[in-house]
Write a structure and sequence with these properties.
By secondary structure, this protein is of the alpha+beta class. It is 29% helix and 17% strand. A hairpin with a 3-residue loop joins β1 and β2. It is globular. The chain binds adenosine monophosphate.
Length: 143
Amino acid sequence: MTSAYDSNNIFARILRGELPCHRVFETPDVLAFMDIMPRAPGHTLVIPKAPARTLLDVTPASLGTLILGVQTVAAAVKTAMEADGLTIQQFNESAGGQVVFHLHFHVIPRREGQAMRPHTAQMAPADELVAHAARIRQALGGA
Ligand code: AMP
């Protein structure tokens, strides 16, 4: 059974500027920032600005801009982290592995032969997240 959108979830609070994030990409519709518990160095989250709990709640227009944002960010993450490949993940409801109930896509750079760390296992040091965000912003053509 699904539930309603909770406007106090962590990503809604990031969108309102109530909580900080390591921002890498932003459009009027989409925000991307570093995952604080990366499954691999450079793990980035891409979220719609419009409220949506899961993939099943998002409007077609918002999903369109979101998936284009995922592609843009994925290309930059792959370049910035010199990755061999990418894993894109998206979880729906607790049973599906979702922890934060605002729709998001995980962009995880992958190196040949390197396993991903477990989901939400360990916080990365802030300086590492700052450095990786800067590399990804640079690959996106920003400062
Ligand atoms: P999930 O809902 O299962 O797709 O996972 C939520 C993801 O959000 C996990 O990978 C967490 O490490 C990440 N996360 C939780 N809180 C924050 C935060 N404040 N900033 C960035 N990432 C977060």
